[in-house]
Hints:
The chain is an alpha+beta fold and 211 residues long. It is built from four helices and nine strands; from the N terminus they run αβαβββαβββββα.
Amino acid sequence: MPLAATTLIGVLGAVPAHATSDRQPAASRIPGGFLLYEGKAARQKAAERLGRATWTTTDRRDVPFLVDPCATKQSTDPGRRAARTITGDSVEWDDTHSEQLIVYRDASAARAAVQGLRAQLRRCAARDAGGGHTFIHATRPARIGDEAFLVKGFFVASGMAGTVARQGRAIVIYTFSDHPEGWPESKFGGKQARAMIAKLARSPLGSRGPA
């Protein structure tokens, strides 16, 4: 299984094609079709790499971040008001595209969540995965939204590349099954993150005040 998908093992495995198990507060509700991978065009673009794919969507607020370097497999950040996670898995080979939007009560809570994730990435930059294997994670800052960084992970023969970005009280994450050389933003979902940050900047979901 590709590394980009490992953070969702046991979380999305039994989720139907679209599940909304958490009731979202009205002021923080994520509209249908808001995320990029809910749209036909974005999925068609993803299909250039994925081929035939199965897509799962969940609105559960307790899912872990798509980037889960310490394998907590649970949310550890307080203040979540809404969330949506979409994953496309190739049915032909090991490849995954994922998108996640998490909305917090205010910008301070979202900022603290990013700081917490950065701390995990430092603490588990090289994590013992057993059997003599090690998960390796590395990051690099990016200029997207209020704050952002690129991240890559590697385990045996599987790689993960992604972007984590914050706009006001919202965090968006994109991950892919890949391990690019260097840090070209285009290989880490930078284009997708910029598009979503622009949407959030025009939406109450990306506001800096409380909801």
